[in-house]
Design brief:
Distance between the termini: 46 Å
Order of helices and strands: HEEEEEEHHHHHEEHEEHEEEHEEEEEEE
Shape: flat
Radius of gyration: 34 Å
Oligomer: single chain
Strand content: 25-35%
Mean pLDDT: 82
Largest sheet: 6 strands, antiparallel, barrel
């Protein structure tokens, strides 16, 4: 082997060693760099305050003796002279009436299930899917102790199972069950007596069983004249409910929600008086309510605090049972790729991040749509020139 060949081989070997050492160094540096995976993230721009519901309400009173069986549920619409409740001497009568209603409903389910029109065209697989969904709904109702929903979910599940039995030919006729139920209904009916008294509605409106004593303290017409002192007195009042009160009539379905916010609050800064709607969350509910802004006006001499009045066109259990609520107003919602501030770098004047894929680092741009304290949101895009979901962002330069 001549000297030239030896020199060439030496050079090649040296280059190979340098490449190996260099690649190991790059791998070590890359592997030791801290990274964070880009994820899709949603941020609400919001403000919170404590407020109260204000409605035009009239208390329903009954000063007689006896056990009441209500004929209406919360939020039910009432017309003048609607029956609100029946009065009995014996609470057993309430039980008899309740059993008659349940057994009659069950009998109707059997009759409906065996009706040929009910089972025609139903696919077995689709029915089984409905049964599984209804079973899960029943379990969720039990777990949440929502006993009203438990009864309705169980009733629907039994109906679906009866239909399934008809389709699968396990049962083709429920005449025996229907006859037995009719016999039980007749037995309970023989034990019932007419109510001793009937409570009716004196006005039209909507029924609510929850009372807190605020029914006579403030009305919708009072809102325009509320002062700072008056609001403080309302929020700190401890009103008493009449011992003869059994419920109330709410004159309008719409309700007002009032509270006090600071001047620096985003709602005042954005001057959203003309906003058509606003998303509102309450601490006692998972629901998101859509409300419109009725009024925002200062209530103190320095104009540091503002009265906010929201219009709500929903009347549900949460709004009826709670006079006071901690409310969160959601102005805007931003969804994008979450980028930590410590990952942000600049390249040729362009803001972006370095991402790591294997041993290769790549600079990717970001399009900032929201800025938080320690992160920003970048537009969620398919453009690979920008940071994408699942990219591994380097937190220590690139």
């Amino acid at each position: 082997m001549n000297s030239i060949t030896v020199k060439v081989m030496g050079v090649v070997l040296s280059i190979f060693i340098l490449l190996m050492v260099g690649s190991q160094f790059v791998y070590f540096v890359s592997d030791s760099s801290e990274t964070e995976e880009a994820v899709l993230y949603t941020v609400d721009e919001s403000a919170s305050f404590r407020g109260m519901f204000v409605r035009d309400e009239k208390v329903i009173e009954y000063d007689g003796d006896g056990i009441l069986q209500f004929n209406v549920s919360d939020a039910s619409k009432l017309s003048t002279d609607s029956v609100i409740a029946y009065v009995y001497d014996d609470e057993q009568q309430i039980y008899y009436k309740s059993q008659i209603e349940k057994l009659t409903s069950l009998k109707e389910d059997y009759e409906k299930a065996q009706n040929p029109g009910t089972t025609s065209g139903i696919e077995t697989e689709a029915l089984r899917t409905k049964i599984s969904q209804q079973y899960m709904e029943l379990i969720e109702s039990c777990d949440s102790e929502d006993y009203g929903s438990v009864y309705s979910a169980r009733k629907e599940l039994m109906y679906l199972l009866n239909v399934n039995n008809i389709i699968t030919r396990n049962d083709t006729d429920f005449s025996e069950q229907i006859t037995e139920l009719e016999s039980m209904i007749s037995e309970y009916e023989s034990l019932t007596v007419d109510p001793k008294d009937t409570i009716t509605s004196s006005d039209s409106g909507y029924f609510a069983s929850t009372l807190d004593g605020y029914e006579g303290l403030v009305s919708v017409s009072d809102i325009d004249y509320l002062t700072e002192e008056r609001i403080d007195s309302l929020f700190n009042a401890e009103p008493e409910t009449s011992e003869n009160a059994i419920g109330k009539i709410i004159s309008e379905y719409d309700t007002k929600f009032i509270g006090v916010i600071e001047k620096s609050n985003k709602l005042v800064e954005l001057s959203l008086l003309s906003s058509n709607s606003l998303s509102v969350r309450f601490s006692s509910s998972d629901n998101v309510y859509t409300m419109s802004i009725d009024t925002i006006r200062p209530i103190d001499e320095n104009e540091e605090e503002y009265l906010i009045v929201l219009d709500c066109t929903v009347l549900d259990e949460t709004l009826l049972q709670n006079r006071f609520e901690n409310a969160e107003l959601v102005f805007e919602e931003y969804t994008g790729v979450k980028v930590p501030r410590e990952a942000i770098r600049f390249k040729d004047g362009v803001k972006g991040v370095y991402t790591l894929f294997g041993q290769e680092t790549t600079f990717k741009k970001i399009d900032v749509i929201y800025e938080g304290d320690d992160f920003v949101l970048s537009s969620n895009t398919d453009d690979t020139a920008y940071v994408n979901v699942y990219d591994q962002m380097l937190l220590e330069g690139g």
